[in-house]
Amino acid sequence: MASASLLKSSPIIEKSEWVKGAALRHPSASVAARSHPATSLAVRAASSYADELVKTAGLVPLAGSNDESWCQGLDGLASRSAAYYQQGARFAKWRTVVSIPNGPSALAVKEAAWGLARYAAISQDNGLVPIVEPEILLDGDHGIERTFEVAQKVWGEVFFYLEENNVMFEGILLKPSMVTPGAESKEKATPEQVAEYTLKLLHRRIPPAFLSGGQSEVEATLNLNAMNQGPNPWHVSFSYARALQNTCLKTWGGRPEKVKEAQEALLVRAKANSLAQLGKYTGEGESEESKQGMFVKGYTY
């Protein structure tokens, strides 16, 4: 489940500079993302990547739930985080999922929130900035109201357990899902409706950097754009993988002669989302490929 790498020269934060409860000295440090099994310490040298984003183990069935999952990997996380820090990592990522069609059960929501909070506390204790990502899956035929209801519950639990674990809120990066109807819902939402519900949730809960969650490239950008067309107290940004890379990867397809064309496709997406952060994206001139949804029903993460 590897993400793309964002290569940028950034200052290395010495562990002696990290004081729990104090502001980070280098808030602009960039992220270089890779996938790492929980049992491996094979991180690229800090001389290659200024910062390294560490991912933990995957999802496994949650006993006693309604066919739901939980994210394992807390065992030994402290020692792994300390080792990753020494090798140049400055950010960590823990992602878990909540399924609306499968409940979500109170057990699954609590397990997701508690696991994220423990991971965040452990990361901060070892000098890493935790990226907290509980994803509410698009699976289902529910409407946007139901997603909003579940999102409030999930993020309420997340913040409760972050507080219980003494996590320093200004030292985390939160990555929520946008509030949309289920992928199979007959009630399609406009970008304005997605913006309304999502911003309403954020006003009640969280500061954001969004994932795309299976939306098409254009949908994710239009929704982000709508959120930035009204006043809000945050810089509403994005943290996409598929909604930045899909057209680029399909254009490239591993063919050397397509590298330049693929780079141009990636630049188009980056520029579109840059404009969306300013509320100035129009959607004009987008390719048909960029309008194709990327939702996969029952996708195994």
TrEMBL record:
Class of this enzyme: lyase
Reaction catalysed by this enzyme: beta-D-fructose 1,6-bisphosphate = D-glyceraldehyde 3-phosphate + dihydroxyacetone phosphate
Stored InterPro entries: Aldolase_I_AS (IPR029768), Aldolase_TIM (IPR013785), FBA_I (IPR000741)
PROSITE patterns with a match to the protein in the record: ALDOLASE_CLASS_I
EC number: 4.1.2.13
Keywords: Glycolysis, Lyase, Schiff base
An example Gene Ontology biological process: glycolytic process
GO molecular function: fructose-bisphosphate aldolase activity
Pathway named in the protein's UniProt entry: Carbohydrate degradation; glycolysis; D-glyceraldehyde 3-phosphate and glycerone phosphate from D-glucose: step 4/4
NCBIfam families linked: FrucBisAld_I
Family: Belongs to the class I fructose-bisphosphate aldolase family.
Protein name: Fructose-bisphosphate aldolase
